[in-house]
Structure formats: C-alpha cells, structure tokens
Amino acid sequence: MPELPEVETVRRGLVPVLEGQVLARVEQRRPDLRFPLPERMVERLTGRRIVRLDRRAKYLLIHLDDGMVLLIHLGMSGRMMVSQGRPQVVSPHDHVVFETEAGSVVTFNDTRRFGMMDLVSQNALHAHKSLEALGPEPLSDEFDAAYLDQALARKITPIKAALLDQRVVAGLGNIYVCEALWAARISPRRVAASVAGVRAARLVPEIKAVLQRAIEAGGSSLRDYVQVDGELGYFQHSWSVYDREGEPCRTPKCRGTVQRLVQSGRSTFFCPVCQR
Fold first, then answer.
1. Helical (H) or strand (E) element with 5
2. Which residues of 7-21 are buried (b: 16+ CB within 10 A; e: fewer)?
3. Annotated binding residues for DNA
4. Which of 29, 33, 54, 128 is deepest in the core (most CB within 10 A)?
5. From CA 99, how far away is CA 85, in angstroms rounded?
C-alpha cells in the first residue's frame, strides 16, 4: 500500500495538471471500488474547477470551487496516471477518468479495487470517518518529541506497532517505520512507553528525514506503485534495512546482520546489534 511519501509524490505530480483547471469530462466505468462511489459523482464533478490539491495522511484531497472535496485513497494498487489526450489503450482496471478543459487526462487505475473515493463538504472534512481520528502529520511542527512522549505514554505495545497506529501519527507505514527505527537505533520490539526523552528526541527527526528523502526520490516502488508519469520511485534503492534480511547492517562499525520478524502480521526488518 502506498505510504505518505508515495501519496505526496502523486499529489505533487497532479498539482501542475489539475490545480486551477476545470473538469470538462468525468467518466465513471463502474459503480464501486472498495466502497460504492459517490452518488451522481460524474454530474457533481463535471464543470467544477479544482482549487487546490492537499494530502492528509495517505489520502488525496481535491478541493473544488463549490466547497466540496474529492477524497481519494489509492488502496493497495491504485494509480493516478497523467496523459495528454485520451489514451489509445484502455485497461479494464481504468475505473475513473478525469479530463480537464486544457486537455489533460488523469486516469485512476486500480487492479485490486481496494481504493476509495468520496465527496464531502469542506466544512465537514475534519469529521469524515476516514480522517477524524488521525494523529498529526509527521512532517508538521505539531509532531515533535514532546508530542510523541505524550502519545506513547502508558502504551505497552511495541514501538513499531505504535508508530503504525494512525491515531498516533498519520501516514506512516511499514517501510518508513522500519527505516526510521533503524536510523534512530531503536529496537522495533521496545515497549512504546519507554521511547521517551532522549529516544523520542532522536526518533522524531529521523522519521522526518526518512520521509523527506523518500519524497525527494519519488517514493518507493514496491509491487504496483508508480508516479503519475509512469516512472518508478527510487527510494527502494536507498533502503538501509527494509527487505535486507541476512545482509550486513549499514551502521558504521556495526557487525550486526539484518533480521526479519513478524509483528502484527507485518514483516519488520532491524539490526539486533545496534537497535536497542
């Protein structure tokens, strides 16, 4: 599933194509994705001007000139593909097509159909069921060591599980939590409440740094993810620990070997020597 850097990369790729543009044509090719698509979606979107594109956690937010917001989640395999003019080859997995008056076409392709779209009033956006319980954005000033200390207090789950909890911090996923914990030299098995003080102060900037580097690299292409122009992300070539089981730890002077364990059904990669 695309994580924050991948969704942010998609948002940035769509901004020059969609922001300020009028949707001249919208085509809906099926009634649902993971959930039913919004009622009268084509009618409600056609002719609307896109004011701006935002992101909240792993959701794209397309703000329209009538005060509505198109909320999009890419799911496991969703892609937003940009072309000039309508593509000659149509995939059976191209489910929604947006065409602007300028002639740009954005196609939502989703092989597994785990994505979702919803239309919600901007005034009610904060209360949407997908957004209301989300924690702060990890790249925001609100996410700092003091906040993390408070959020993790009395949590007896492993720190890896706590960071994947979207109520603690929004948008983090398996890859970047593994990378950030390795960079901060914190064991993924450590009790979350014990990651306080010096450890929290070390972890927060590493989370931010890992995410920023991933965004600059266009995200990580794992399975289905590509950028809006079809290019792969490149951050997977910079992974320090994720998916490197059995390889030497990259921490200078560390003689450890990357190990894999399963936590909450997800693979965790870490160095048992330098991560404590």
1. helix 4-18
2. bbbbbebbeebbeeb
3. 93, 112, 155
4. 33
5. 8
Distance between CA atoms of 62 and 46, rounded to whole angstroms?
A: 14
Q: Which residues contact 226 (CB under 8 A, 6 or more apart)?
A: 79, 81, 232, 233
- Other beta carbons within 10 Å of 81: 20
State if pTM tops 0.70.
Answer: yes
Catalytic, 160? Answer no
- Please confirm, yes or no, whether 34 is among the known catalytic residues: no
Q: Which of 3, 6, 8, 179 is catalytic?
A: 3
Q: Which amino acid is at 258?
A: V
- Is 92 in the active site? no
Q: Point out the catalytic residue in the list 12, 113, 189, 266.
A: 266
Contacts of 61 (CB under 8 A, 6+ apart): 53, 54, 55, 69, 70, 71, 72, 125
**How far from chain centre, in Å, is Cα 58?**
4
* Angle, vertex CA 99, rays to CA 96 and CA 103, nearest 5: 150
SS3 223: coil
Active-site entry in 2, 136, 138, 188: 2
Residue 234 has pLDDT above 60, yes or no: no
* CATH numbers and ranges of domains, the chain: 4-127 (3.20.190.10), 145-270 (1.10.8.50)
Asked about 244 being catalytic, the answer comes back as no
Q: Tens digit of pLDDT for each residue in 100-121?
A: 999 999 999 999 999 999 999 9
Residue 224 pLDDT > 70, yes or no?
Answer: no
Q: How far apart are CA 33 and CA 37, in angstroms?
A: 7
Which of 56, 58, 79, 244 is labelled catalytic?
58
pLDDT for res 85: 78
Residue matched to tokens 């060591």 = 145
